[in-house]
Specification:
There is one protein chain. This protein is an all-alpha fold. The chain is built from 6 helices and no strands. Helix content is 70%, strand content 0%. Helix 1 packs parallel to helix 3 (45-68), helix 3 (45-68) packs parallel to helix 6 (113-132) and helix 5 (81-107) runs antiparallel to helix 6 (113-132).
């Protein structure tokens, strides 16, 4: 079942604007919505539009998390076991998101705009990684 756009917007707003991390479990909820088990559903414009909306929404969430430094393992994070576990959990969710994106790229016919949008999001994620996961010593 695909979440309604208003629900997705509400979740994104809670995660990206709130200072607390109570709503971060909703990231997993959004990522799980990306399970496209029946590729023929992608032919439905409404379904494709909702999936695209969720892909872009989750991308925005992770972009904000990168900007906040929530996905980076700096010295302070490594010394605090709770913060380290949290960061590792976020990174696992991020890797799951990338995996779903790759599955969509490989399973959905390339002629669909959803597949192209997924490729674009994936490349943007790689760019974020290159900026935030590289060594700061260089």
């Amino acid at each position: 079942m695909v979440l309604e756009k208003e629900e997705v917007k509400r979740i994104v707003k809670q995660i990206t604007t709130a200072g607390d991390k109570r709503h971060y479990n909703s990231i997993v909820k959004l990522i799980n919505e990306l399970k496209v088990t029946d590729v023929s559903k992608v032919e439905d414009d409404s379904y494709e539009s909702n999936i695209r909306f969720i892909v872009v929404a989750v991308h925005q969430i992770f972009k904000k998390l990168f900007e906040r430094g929530d996905l980076t393992l700096d010295l302070a994070t490594r010394q605090n076991s709770e913060l380290l576990q949290f960061t590792q959990w976020l990174r696992k969710a991020y890797e799951n998101f990338k995996t779903y994106i790759l599955h969509m790229i490989s399973d959905i016919p390339v002629e669909t705009s959803l597949a192209l949008d997924c490729q674009d999001v994936y490349f943007q994620l790689l760019e974020l990684e290159s900026i935030h996961f590289t060594s700061k010593k260089d």
